[in-house]
Amino acid sequence: MRLKITLFPQTVPTVIPVNYNHLVYAEIGDKIKRHSDAFKGDRRLKNLGIFKERFRIYTFSFLRFKNFLIENDEVKLTNPDEFNFFISSPFSSFIEGLALAFLRDGNFRVGDANFVVKSVAKIEPPKFADEMKLRLLSPIAVVKSKGKREIFMTPDETGYFDKIKEDLIRKYNFLYAEKIKSVDFEMQFDKEYIDLRGGKFSKLIKFGRMNVKCFLAPFIIKTDPKLIEVGYEWGFGHKNHFGFGMAVVSEHDIKEQ
């Protein structure tokens, strides 16, 4: 289930850090704490640690500003334009609880900046097929372990897309009684898109003390539609709850219904 949240700045100009993922994550967590009653109807959420800041089965997009300037590692909004972002999870009760929290508060804070909630809308999912082209609303991060360290992989490394496949299977098996052990899988980033940008499609996003090496480009995926649906709802790759790996089929699918 997916929400489209439309906001506008309470005052202009408004400034937020370029690296704001940790602030959005913190604000979502704060809404869960202050509106805990909105999530108590589903015991699974409690068992998964939603009230102990351990719930990780969701993802969110970049803040989709219309007009902005980037100066000195800050995003500056000089017009009172509305903008939107998205939150997605396979747990509809979690999304419904967040929708209620947003509507109750009527605002959304990103660090020192405050935004007014204009609307909260449910987005209907697309039809899933065994081959789809998706584009990213937040970049994909893929992690491998090296001892006790986590290292962020790049798409040219052997095993990069295997990690995404393994993660989708793990997520599916966690969510559903039916288990997938192996499945045909093929995924690649859009080469034409990357070439048009001179081969540059990587990003480095600071999340607290962590530097996340991630990648933002459309991609084609061929596999079981059930795995694509899990990626759509929970996120592709790793660190989804920190705002990574949210995908969409097309712009049409995220407009107001």
UniProtKB/TrEMBL annotation:
Pfam families: Cas6_I-A, Cas_Cas6_C. It comes from the Bacteria. Residues 124-247 form the CRISPR associated protein Cas6 C-terminal domain. Keywords: Antiviral defense, RNA-binding. InterPro entries: Cas_Cas6_C, CRISPR-assoc_prot_Cas6, CRISPR-assoc_prot_Cas6_N_sf. PANTHER family: CRISPR-ASSOCIATED ENDORIBONUCLEASE CAS6 1. NCBIfam families: cas_cas6. Belongs to the CRISPR-associated protein Cas6/Cse3/CasE family. CRISPR (clustered regularly interspaced short palindromic repeat), is an adaptive immune system that provides protection against mobile genetic elements (viruses, transposable elements and conjugative plasmids). CRISPR clusters contain sequences complementary to antecedent mobile elements and target invading nucleic acids. CRISPR clusters are transcribed and processed into CRISPR RNA (crRNA). This is CRISPR-associated endoribonuclease. It comes from Candidatus Kryptonium thompsonii.
